[in-house]
Amino acid sequence: MKIAVLGAGALGCAIGGALAEAGNDVVLINRNRAHVEAIRAGGLRMRGPAGERRAAVRAELDCGSLALVELVIVLVKSFHTQEAIRAATPLIGAETVVLSLQNGLGHEDILADAVGRARVVAGKTYVGGVMLAPGHIISGTEGKETLIGELDGSDSARIRRIAATFEAAGLRTTVSTTIMGTIWDKLLINVATGAVSGITGLPYGPLYAIPEIEATAVAAVQEAIDVARASGVALSSTDPRAAWTKAAAGLPEDFKTSMLQSLEKGSITEIDFINGAVVRWGQRCGVPTPVNATLVACIKGVERARLAR
To answer: What is the pLDDT of residues 280-302, one digit of tens each?
Structure first.
């Protein structure tokens, strides 16, 4: 397939690199000039359980010089979704499919407003990635599932083709006919680890060694489960500890959540689309979410402190 990864940071490169290695025509789009130039000069370096390898893949700073593609994978930060999809107009034709694999809730509606609901499919991925240096990532794809689906729950030929393309690249992929439940399932993973990692500054190894952090994470996930139930969302699991366990499965001890990576770069986070989404949905359905509200407040404080420095 002809594929563009819009927002090819660590996660986008992990997915895009795997797809390129499998023979797809992939372009990675990222506004970081050093990252793009490093990939152009020496390929994408990917470190995994089996060691390090390089993928020959195209990288661009923007979409201006690009032609139509069959699939746009959207992985920009949540707060950049509208800006990014509007700038991606050169990529999108009548048959182009736009797939959001972003964290949190609400991206599909933003994309549908920009390109039309018929072009948009949704998904969630448990693949991980960490940026080590420009053009150099830790790729956490092994054993990590990606779920994708049509917004209307149909089992279409195009969603099956995308899934088959991912599978052929070693990205374990399932087609979901209940994508909203799938989105909430992934949200629980982000709720479990994103904020506590960002607040403490800890990667997974030391993070998972502290019982008090585990208790806080499990309590936050339980709130999210309560909100989902009250909202009529069908989850694949209602065990809050399962989300905490699944978040770290197969990932190295030095793995950092995307929220922690954002904070270390001095950027704002996606907290409003993750724990903040739980708080907003809880307010709508009358379910208290004090743990998530506290985590949101703490992350906002860390953001302010880091930006001030």
So the answer is: 999 999 999 999 999 999 999 99
Quote the pLDDT of residue 138: 93
Nearest to 124 by CA among 279, 292, 273: 273
Sign of the torsion formed by the C-alpha atoms of 295, 103, 126 and 26: negative
Phi, psi of 178 (to 5 degrees): -130, 65
Angle at the Cα of 122 (from 121 to 123), degrees rounded to 5?
Answer: 135
Instruction: Grade residue 258 by pLDDT with cuts at 50, 70 and 90.
Output: confident
Q: How confident is the model at residue 50 (pLDDT cuts 50, 70, 90)?
A: confident
Question: If you average pLDDT over residues 32-40, what whole number do you get?
Answer: 97
What is the rounded distance in angstroms from the CA atom of residue 182 to the CA atom of residue 191?
14
Binning pLDDT at 50, 70 and 90, where does residue 112 land? Answer: very high
Question: What is the Rg, in whole angstroms, of the alpha carbon atoms belonging to the chain?
Answer: 18
CA 249 vs. chain centroid, Å, equals 16
SS3 letters across the chain: CEEEEECCCHHHHHHHHHHHHCCCEEEEECCCHHHHHHHHHHCEEEEECCEEEEECCEEECCCCCCCCCCEEEECCCHHHHHHHHHHCHHHCCCCCEEEECCCCCCHHHHHHHHHCHHHEEEEEECCEEEEEECCEEEEECCCCCEEEEECCCCCCHHHHHHHHHHHHCCCCEEECCCHHHHHHHHHHHHHHHHHHHHHHCCCHHHHCCCHHHHHHHHHHHHHHHHHHHHCCCCCCCCCHHHHHHHHHCCCCCCCCCHHHHHHHCCCCCCHHHCHHHHHHHHHHHCCCCHHHHHHHHHHHHHHHHHHHC
Mean pLDDT taken over the chain: 94
